[in-house]
Amino acid sequence: MWTKDGDLLVDALIEAYGAMWPWVCPRRLVTRLPALAESLHGLARQKLIGQGHTYRDRADTVYEHAAMYGAFHAARARRSWPNALPQTCPLCRAVFTAGQLNPWIIRQFGPSRWCKKCCVTARNGRSGAATPRAGGQALTALSVSMGAAPPQDFSQRPVPLDLPAEQRDAIVSAMAACPSAASLRGLLGAGSWIEVLHTTGIVPDAWRPARGTYCVAADGHPCRSLAERTIDDWLSCHGVEHQIEPAWPHHPQLNTHGHRRADWRLSDGTYVEYAGLTNEDYLAKIQAKQQLAQHTGIRLIVITPPDLANLTEVLGAWSSKIRIK
Ligand SMILES: [Zn+2]
Asked: Which residues contact 311 (CB under 8 A, 6 or more apart)?
């Protein structure tokens, strides 16, 4: 069931990630080649012929493995990629190779750049005692390097790929120097993350979550999450016209009452949805949206958290300010 489009996607991943490309393949397939992801997922849901065991109840896990190792074998039969060579970590000057990094590091931090120790420190945050003042300053430094208010789960967020290398270094360095979100809430005596952002002055006090509005994008659009704000700000900043919350056309089964809405509509009629992958059935949720799009003939772009690392790759085609190769 592997396709020529799958080969092209893998070639692009090899270009960006070198030897570590398989770790990012499963999630990339879901958003870029949904039909191929769906056929792999469909296979994962079946009892495989000649297998004594089956993982029908863990279709997402089987899908992940098939999309990594299946794609790997298909690519290996067809081509090769450069070996992982020694490189120097720009933060601590340690010499390492990409092969020493774990899959989660590649998925969160992108192509090999920082050593494992620096990535682990950035993920865990600064440990040990800190004063409320020092904690607040560390978070402020992080928000300055990001150019945005850090979301509560900042330590697990992908580091954006489409930023200058120096800015990416500054973000990872600031993550490593910042206490965890839980420590910060404790240090500052804050009951919620938005309170942390208010106390430190990172976002103005006037912003209150109301009617599901968590924060406001640069162009004034209300957003339900900082992820949505990131996308909305990317659209504004790249000159992409967008309306929020367009209605989906009525459909007898998939949109019975006509109440369903997408997150954005672009000027050519394309719908954009943000899907947080916070629960186990993320694939089913994305597929439901893709089905509705298919039945209504609307082009749909689904953005998932790993895509936030490189929105240019997903949405760049709509920007008059970017030329995609
Ligand atoms: Zn390092």
From this structure: 162, 230, 231, 234, 303
R_g (Cα) of the chain, nearest Å: 21
Distance in Å, CA 170 to ligand 1 centroid: 13
CA–centroid distance, residue 94 to ligand 1 (Å): 6
Residues 118 and 53 in one domain: no
Q: Tens place of pLDDT for every residue, the chain, 325 residues?
A: 899 999 999 999 999 899 999 999 998 898 889 899 999 988 888 766 556 555 667 788 888 888 999 999 999 999 988 888 999 999 999 999 999 999 999 989 999 999 999 999 999 998 877 899 999 999 989 988 887 778 888 898 888 777 789 989 999 999 999 999 999 999 999 988 888 988 887 776 544 544 445 667 778 887 777 678 889 988 998 889 999 999 999 888 888 888 888 999 999 999 999 886 655 666 777 788 888 999 989 999 998 776 776 788 889 888 876 544 3
CA of 93 to the centre of ligand 1 (A): 6
Look up the domain containing 175 and give its range.
Answer: 105-199
> CA–CA separation, 264 vs 262, rounded Å?
6
Q: Residues 219, 305: one domain?
A: yes
Q: How far apart are CA 208 and CA 199, in angstroms?
A: 13
How far does the centroid of ligand 1 lie from the alpha carbon of residue 137, in Å? 23
Q: Which of 32, 50, 82 marks a domain boundary?
A: 82
Count the domains in the chain. Answer: 3
Cα(119) to centroid(ligand 1), Å = 7
